[in-house]
Specification:
The chain has 9 helices and no strands. The protein has one domain: Up-down Bundle (Glycerol uptake facilitator protein). The protein is 63% helix and 0% strand. It is globular and about 60 Å long.
Length: 286
């Protein structure tokens, strides 16, 4: 597999912004679109008489979340291998924040990435409405994430924070750490996200991405569909906390400082902060 941990400095800022916008557009269109279609297909279908099944779709619970988790994984993995060498393919404002915490990306670039990511996510949600029609937002809710029946908001927010922590931890370990196996970041990060969606989906909807959280909620609101604004702020706050924690903790755990560097840090171990360690500003996230 090709190495995706490449320098992004050769690409202009507009190119990187467009890569982020297009990447997250397809993350939302494919991932949230699959969640919406699951609801549409399951409308009126017989359900298992299980009081603990608060899932979605005709299969009820895990079967549906497996399909949704894999749909997100396929979209993310594809975008990473398409745009990873251009922008790093963060396609998640929390990933950008997590990298910013350890100065793996300049603040100015991070701000422009965030703008592109939110615009791309909103466009992806409206694309679901365009393709699926009225059922997309009336029945499918455009795949918006929200607490499931019986789940209090604080517990759903906790799930989002933990999920975001695990997601950003995976990005650091697989796409930023120079000791990670070359070329596998896109696949393993995507599978990590699929697993998180499967386990957290029935609790919070497993958004684990601030732009993916906001995009469908905003489009639903514009189209007079479901209103999930009450959970939006809590989700994004939890995701910010989880991403920040991962951005602080992983480097502290995993950076191994060199004892002495007589002639300056070698190219393969020079970090962005100027000290000799095993991180580099690869930016190849998800």
């Amino acid at each position: 597999m090709a190495k995706i941990r490449l320098s992004v400095s050769e690409y202009s800022l507009p190119q990187r912004m467009m890569a982020e916008a297009v990447g997250i557009f397809f993350l939302v269109f494919v991932g949230c679109g699959t969640a919406a279609m699951t609801l549409i297909l399951g409308k009126g279908a017989p359900r298992f008489a299980n009081p603990h099944d608060i899932g979605i779709g005709a299969l009820g619970g895990m079967g549906d979340w497996l399909a949704i988790g894999l749909a997100f994984a396929f979209a993310i993995m594809t975008m990473v291998y398409i745009f990873g060498h251009v922008s790093g393919c963060h396609i998640n404002p929390a990933v950008t924040l997590g990298l910013l915490v350890h100065k793996e990306i300049p603040l100015g670039d991070a701000l422009t990435y965030w703008v592109s990511q939110f615009i791309g996510a909103i466009a992806g949600a409206f694309a679901i409405a365009l393709v699926f029609g009225r059922a997309g937002w009336i029945t499918g809710g455009l795949g918006a994430a929200a607490p499931f029946p019986g789940v209090p908001l604080w517990r759903a927010g906790t799930a989002e924070g933990l999920g975001q922590f695990a997601l950003v931890l995976g990005v650091y370990g697989l796409a930023v750490n120079r000791k990670a196996p070359s070329g596998w970041a896109g696949l393993i990060i995507a599978l990590n996200i699929a697993g998180l969606i499967i386990v957290l989906g029935n609790v919070s909807g497993a958004a684990i991405n601030p732009a993916r959280t906001l995009g469908p909620i905003f489009a639903d609101w514009v189209l007079d569909g479901a209103n999930h604004w009450a959970s939006c702020g809590v989700y994004i706050l939890a995701q910010v906390i989880g991403a920040t924690a991962a951005g602080l903790l992983y480097p502290w755990i995993a950076i191994r400082k060199s004892k002495s560097v007589p002639n300056g840090p070698a190219p393969e171990t020079a970090g962005v902060s100027g000290g000799p360690h095993e991180f580099g500003a690869s930016g190849s996230g998800i």
